[in-house]
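ligand=adenosine-5'-diphosphate
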Amino acid sequence: METPPPTKPVEVAQEESRDLRNTLTYAGMLTLVLGIMIFASSPVAISLAIPPEQTSLMAIASAGVAILGLLALWRNLPVRLISQVTMVAYTLIITLTVHYTGGPVTPMPALYMLVIVVASFLLGRHGAMLIAILSIACYALMLLTEYSGSVSLIPIWGMEIPLRERGPLLVINWLIVAIPALFTAQLSGILAERLQDTNAHLRESEQLQNSLTHMIIHDLRNPITAVMGGIDLLLMTMADQMDETQKHLLENTRHSSQMLVELVNELLDINKIEAGKFVLNLGTVDLYRLLSESLNAIKATAELEKQHLALAPAPEHTTVIGDEHLLRRVIANLLSNALKYTPANGTISGSLTHEGDSIVVRITDTGPGIPEKERERIFEKFTQVQEKHIQRQGTGLGLTFCQLAVNAHGGQIWVESEEGEGSTFAFRLPVAGPQSAEVNLRSV
Ligand code: ADP
């Protein structure tokens, strides 16, 4: 039976395309600067004795190769093919530049080494070796055409050396370029391979670690649920035989077990979204209904804590395409934070606005606010603001989950806050919903 060809992991392909994009961007910028410098015939260009016209054309050509490469990447052409074509194009352009800037007397052949090093990272050891062989073949061809007189003779090291004496000098000159080119290809190829191997090992061990963590977290849920069941049973059947302290202790234990279950659930969800295994259950979601139902759900707790709840009137358009269950949990998480951090007599309010092609949900509280330097960080895993006056009793995962869920819908989440005044957590969702139901880490 024929085995299917191994598919390249998505992450590796993304990495390669990012490497190529960076290479082309830098190459394009560098050559554009060089072109401008030569056109302007700046003192630097003059001191390098670079003839402006042809070399500018070469600079423009290499910037053109970079732009075409970026366009090809944008059109989703295979990364490897674009890398091969651009590396070959750069080798040819460098050969012409070497010729126009003085053939054997120019320092330009050093540019071959640069292309070989880049090729080793983009095309591997063999690819770099092929580019090195192409470079030295092109260089040999150029010297040969100069020697045979097909193109104008260029003085070597400023001397008009007679044709018959030029041969050995040109061979030496060629060797001076050829030997380092081959060495560079070999060495940078080995280095690139080692880096790729290390990367692959790291990725493998990270995956192993992730799946182990996932297994442990998953297996934690059952014993905790059993503990909670036991406590519930005790509270239901034996509450009247217990004194207040015993009851209080049991209730505290139940509360802590509940928090552990929440932590486990959040960790499992975050793992799932990050691993790209979360499939959104898309449908039409009325965000205003979700917001008002979620506010209703916290009404009793808010009353107990003497907090006020408010909901702004609905705008004309309140629906988006999304995963209702996930979005409900986002709102619940933000409201639960607002409840946690708002003092008695404070207000928690919700509002919805229709802005262009999106709907923005805002949840505002009159809590302690969040210091500016912490505002970006609070969306990271396990981040909690270290403030004395804030009572910490969460997991530091709620906002990470909210960000992953909102981003998976093609939206953004952010916080606006004034220290001592309160915070507004807002998220924007496109009315048309995410482009795909597959949650992809790239969109997260
Ligand atoms: P936690 O479970 O700790 O609440 P989150 O990820 O939900 O975890 O929040 C991260 C941190 O952001 C919190 O520990 C808190 O310091 C800060 N934070 C979140 N919401 C608010 C809010 N409404 N007011 C003040 N601080 C907040």
